[in-house]
Amino acid sequence: MNKLAAKYLRPSQIPTKACHGCGIGMIENWLLQAIDEMGFKQEDVIFGTGIGCVGRQTFATWGGDNFGATHGRALAVATGLKLAQPHKKYLIVVGDGDAASIGTSHLIHAARRNLGVTVICEDNMGYESTGGQFSPTTPAGYVTNSSPYGMVEPGFDPCDVVKAAGATFVAETTATQWHQTVKIVKKALANDGFSFVHVRFPCNENFGAYALGTRDTLKNLEWIYEHTQGRKADGSETDFTWETGIKHDASNSRPEFTSLLRAMNDRVQAEAAAKAAKAAAAQAAATQTATVQAATAPASGGDRSRDSGHGKH
Known about the structure:
Blueprint: H1 3-8, H2 24-37, E1 45-49, H3 53-58, E2 66-68, H4 74-84, E3 89-95, H5 96-100, H6 104-113, E4 118-123, H7 158-165, E5 169-174, H8 178-190, E6 195-200, H9 204-212, H10 217-229, E7 245-249, H11 257-296, H12 301-312
Helix pairs in contact: 2-8, 6-7
């Protein structure tokens, strides 16, 4: 057990339950390194997960507070928690299904609102936990369990989606960029707003077997590395290249969503309290006026008549 795992993770969840050669455990260790270098303790961070390979392998590994949400709904849960416990750091680890498919609506609106969480999208380019079907991030032309003649649908980069929606920090890395990923996650965590980090990694069991024709970890990592660099080992160009690095950094440039809600709540409560105090003061003044008037009012007409009658006798 390495020192970061011993410091931050639950002993019962070590080692990772991921498949042989899977990048999920490796990437989680990079996240721990970023957390540690920023000086955070277990109690400072709430760790949330979704469903799928990434959700299953990272759920309940964090030694502090954590949660697992239904598919695509991790950000809905995180929104409520951020409102309740605003001073915590939120690390939401999801897969491409959670972020780029069933959970895209929540992702877009969390970015639009500038919700104060850091989303790590660990993307193995398919629905690998259910047999290796294609997803919106599967590269065009590649064979999967559900695209035996090649992926026909055009893929998309969720980084583009969250940037357009209003995220204040957006970055992309791959499983062959250890140090760059750690630096980027630290920047993401420092942003008091919506941060999104997209990390592509290989799946040996399904994507490797179907798309690349091998379950060899080193060969699959080499494919990731080549498409990160844009060149193969023989010097020829790859069929496409991922653009990695920080894609958008407007950290701390606009208010965090839940801080706006809390400020509005404070304002509404203050206005309601002032209105109630004003009404109470008006009621007290009216009561005092009525009391004074009653005390200084002349005798009633019946008493005056009786007094007049006695005078005649």
